[in-house]
Q: What sequence folds into this?
């Protein structure tokens, strides 16, 4: 997957979990919980959706690496690369 495809997949899952988030105004460094208001259950649903979509295990220790879109895309790219 390209970085653009990973970003699109992340945003699709994010907006499915939190439909109040406007994908058009989302900035790469917006913090999912602090800036966008995701609660812990929304975040867990996002992790689950990413796991289903990408087939990647995402250990709890790595959750901070999903805190922003930019961090998440970099993490997912690295994880997909193996």
A:
């Amino acid at each position: 997957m390209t970085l653009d495809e990973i970003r699109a997949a992340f945003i699709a899952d994010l907006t499915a979990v939190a439909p109040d988030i406007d994908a058009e105004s989302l900035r790469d460094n917006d913090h999912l919980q602090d800036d966008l208001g995701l609660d812990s259950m929304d975040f867990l649903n996002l992790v689950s959706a990413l796991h289903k979509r990408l087939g990647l295990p995402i250990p709890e220790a790595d959750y901070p690496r999903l805190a922003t879109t930019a961090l998440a895309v970099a993490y997912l790219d690295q994880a997909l690369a193996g």
